[in-house]
Amino acid sequence: MTSGEVAVRRTIRVLPPEVAARIAAGEVVERPVSVVRELLDNAIDAGATRISLEIEDGGLTLIRVTDDGRGIHPEELELAFERHATSKIAALDDLGHVHTLGFRGEALPSIAAASDLEIMSRVEAEPTGVTAVLVEGQVVRRYAKAGPRGTNIAVRDLFARVPARRKFLGAPGSEGRQVVVLASHYALAYPGIAFHVVSGGRRALVTSGDGDMRHAFAAIYGAEMGSAMLDVDFAEESVTVTGLCGPSSVHRGNRAAISFFVNGRWVQSRPLTFALIDAYQAQLPIGRHPVAALHISLPDEDVDVNVHPAKAEVRFRDERAVGRAVRRAVAVALEASRVVAWGAAPPSPAVVLTRPLHNEPPPALRSPQPVQGSLGLSRAVPDTAGAPPQQRAVLPMLRVVGQLNATYVICEGPDGMYLLDQHAAHERVVYDRLVAAPRVAEGNVQPLLEPLVLELEAGLAATLDEHRESLARLGLETEPFGDNAALVRSVPAGLGSRDVIEEVRALLQKLENEQRVDDPFGKAAATVACHASVRAGMLLSMEEMRRLVEDLERTTAPRTCPHGRPTLVHLGTEAIERQFGRR
Ligand code: ADP
Ligand code: MG
Question: Is the distance from the beta carbon of residue 47 to the nearest atom of ligand 1 less than 6 Å?
Answer without folding.
Answer: no
